[in-house]
Design a protein that fits this description.
Helix content is 32%, strand content 26%. It is an alpha/beta fold. Bound molecules: flavin-adenine dinucleotide.
Length: 410
């Protein structure tokens, strides 16, 4: 009888594992709580009205349609019963496995202050992106209706908490929207006066980057009109703004780009976890004591491996490779991360990148970022759509995905 491999999560780790198992003599079942694989590096573009959802997401069922040994199930994994080799899904359904690859990624963490969540949405899913987009666009609408100057200023103040790649991208794009996209569209205020404040607890933006690139990124952000506050921690968030120690900043729109917590599913494996809740895996990516379970992507803690998409893809592929080696009676091999460098965009013609010792910033980094992101998108149609949208936006400063309804979902 063929072994049954269940893959939980079809993000970068899960999808790359599933693809690597295309020819495996096994029944593969891919479970995800959404029906789509999401290209997270461009999610901020949906949150800032630059791209629509279908441009950066594709139905999992469609991506894996030609993989005959693979079944796709829409389901939310609630628990893993390691002793019984079963996964508990929503509505009480159970799914047995011979091998399990857990790649359910991460969520945002408010560092124990979950009460801030309604006032400061984070960006992880398409639903988050729709929520943020609608808050940003509606803040400008409310400002046009507001007669009181202080209240209007609060509607026109946008705070982004956390200056990692997502925070930097959001802040830079927000500045561009205020300075360029909305120019001339309002009568009672000038959108260029909107204030974009990027707050970071450490002493530099993009903390994992080399210090000189962090400094260049900060300067590029300020040139775009972003106010960068470094070494300052947010101590409170409510409906009217943020508190930073003794200081208060009135702002009606706050976006959380600060903390990352691992998928809670990691806890049900009974394995040792690190401080962020990631599963401390063996060198072959299996769970200590459970060689039939692998963990890949953001949920796996392995020394020197960052929580980024290329690492998740490499881990997903490697877990599948080790699984196939086991099926054919071969010994497993340890995972080795290949670092191809990192890229972060800040805005038009502004980005930073490093590949080993090669460091780029400004226009050259931006061009590399652009080409890489189009190249890595899933699906020819998506690549074409994004190229067309970006080409149009580059010349016109326009952002086409600005339609907001009560349940904006596209
Ligand atoms: C806004 C944003 C921007 C980013 N930008 C970049 C970038 O520019 N470059 C880069 O390299 N990395 C970037 N990252 C990081 C990158 O997205 C992650 O490192 C990568 O997605 C991790 O892959 P993963 O497979 O572990 O998790 P994910 O890709 O997050 O996939 C997890 C999957 O599991 C599913 N899932 C979760 N819980 C359950 C459950 N209980 N049951 C069923 N399904 C479940 C989810 O729906 C999802 O499809 C970014 C992340 C974010 C949020």
């Amino acid at each position: 009888m063929r072994a049954r491999v269940v893959i939980l999560g079809c993000g970068f780790g899960g999808l790359w594992a599933a693809r690597a198992l295309a020819k495996a003599p096994a029944e593969v079942i891919v479970v995800d709580r959404t029906n789509h694989h999401l290209f997270t590096p461009l999610l901020y573009q949906v949150a800032t009205a630059g791209l629509s959802a279908p441009a950066i997401a594709a139905p999992i069922r469609h991506i894996l349609a030609n993989q005959r040994n693979t079944t796709v199930l829409l389901g939310d994994a609630k628990d893993i019963r390691v002793k019984e080799k079963q996964v508990e899904l929503d509505h009480g359904a159970r799914l047995s496995y011979d091998y399990l690859i857990v790649a359910t990624g991460s969520a945002h963490s408010y560092f124990g202050n979950d009460a801030w969540a309604p006032y400061a949405p984070g960006l992880k899913t398409l639903d988050d992106a729709f929520e943020i987009r609608s808050r940003i666009l509606l803040a400008f609408e409310r400002a046009e209706r507001e007669a009181d100057a202080a209240k209007r200023a609060a509607w026109l103040t946008f705070v982004v908490v956390g200056a990692g790649a997502t925070g930097v991208e959001l802040a830079g794009t927000l500045a561009e929207i205020a300075r360029h996209t909305l120019r001339g569209e309002f009568r009672r205020f000038d959108p260029r006066n909107a204030r974009i404040v990027l707050v970071e607890g450490s002493e530099r933006v993009l903390p994992p980057y080399p210090a000189d690139l962090s400094e260049k990124a900060r300067r590029q952000l300020e040139r775009l009109g972003v106010t960068v506050w470094l070494g300052r921690r947010v101590t409170g968030v409510d409906a009217d703004g943020v508190t930073l120690g003794a200081e208060r900043l009135s702002a009606k729109t706050v976006i959380w780009a600060a903390g990352v917590a691992s998928s809670p599913l990691g806890r049900s494996l009974g394995a040792p976890l690190d401080r962020a809740g990631r599963v401390k895996v063996e060198p072959d990516l299996s769970v200590p004591g459970y060689p039939e379970i692998f963990v890949a992507g953001d949920l796996a803690a392995l020394e020197g491996v960052p929580g980024i998409a290329p690492a998740a893809k490499q881990m997903g592929r490697h877990a599948a490779l080790n699984l196939m080696r086991t099926l054919s009676g071969k010994p497993r091999v340890p995972f080795r991360y290949r670092d191809y460098g990192q890229l972060a965009t800040i805005g038009r013609n502004a980005a930073v990148a490093y590949f080993g010792r090669l460091k780029l910033s400004g226009y050259p980094a931006w061009v590399v970022w652009l080409v890489a992101h189009i190249y890595f998108l899933i699906g020819f149609r998506n690549r074409l759509m994004v190229m067309l949208d970006w080409g149009w936006a580059y010349w016109t400063f326009d952002r086409y995905a600005r339609i907001v309804t009560k349940s904006s979902r596209s």
